[in-house]
Amino acid sequence: MGKIIIKTPEQIEGIRKSSRLAAQTLDFAEQFVKAGVTTEFIDDKVEEFILSNNAIPAPKGYHGFPKATCISPNNVICHGIPSRNTILKDGDIINIDITTILDGYYGDTSRMFTVGEVSPASENLIETTFHCLDLGIEQVKPGNRFGNIGFVINRYAKAKGYSVVYEFCGHGVGIEFHEEPQVDHASRRNTGATMKPGMIFTIEPMINQGKPKANIDKSDGWTARTSDNKLSAQFEHTILVTETGHEVLTDIHEEYPVT
Ligand code: MF3
Ligand code: CO
Ligand code: CO
Fold this sequence. Notes:
The chain is an alpha+beta fold. The chain has a single domain, classed as Creatine Amidinohydrolase. Helix content is 26%, strand content 24%. The chain has four helices and 15 strands. Helix 1 crosses helix 2 and helix 3 packs antiparallel against helix 4. 48% of the residues are buried. The structure holds 2-amino-4-trifluoromethylsulfanyl-butyric acid and cobalt (II) ion (CO) (2 copies).
């Protein structure tokens, strides 16, 4: 412990700006999500948008990742590589994950999009995953322990009949892409480090319809799929611990009050 960076006011302002741009980029991406479009096309548009805002897409070149965004459809849990061979079709559910570097600062956010009409089962998974992130965010306040985030997420997902991916986690973010701590989405109550004002990290639960296990595609070394090929959904925000609670830095729609 002790490796968790407490950000200075100047760093917080920089990370806030990058986070807002990442969220604006997700809004920008939405217009391209429709049947017949390839995930590579969306990635190209998003990359242009980020560059035109004087920022850099963090994934590109990160440990060899080839594209500007992660786009993960249906049974892909995370780290889907945008491709000209992945063509969206009616009924698909997809996660688009955007991380921007603006003036050296990182902001990281993702959400689900639907293509045309999706099944009630898909809707239910998406709604549940959205609520899992809400519940995690409610736990963010000084003095609380990181384990309580994963505790409430796991309890709720299980009650709805879903499973929580344990092989990928949230993370400290801002100065680097992935900082301490690791933020588990399934954990025990009152375990882990204690939250302090000035910490910034993501919560990004990945919730599966079936088994929690992830398999990485051998062909590309990135794409993480459900082991049973059932659906997976994810939402992600970048969150600052304030003196009294939290500020969701990637929330540009004021869905979360500053507490
Ligand atoms: N944005 C992802 C996250 O939420 C990380 C993507 S790593 C990459 O942590 F290399 F695939 F881009
Ligand atoms: Co993240
Ligand atoms: Co992300």
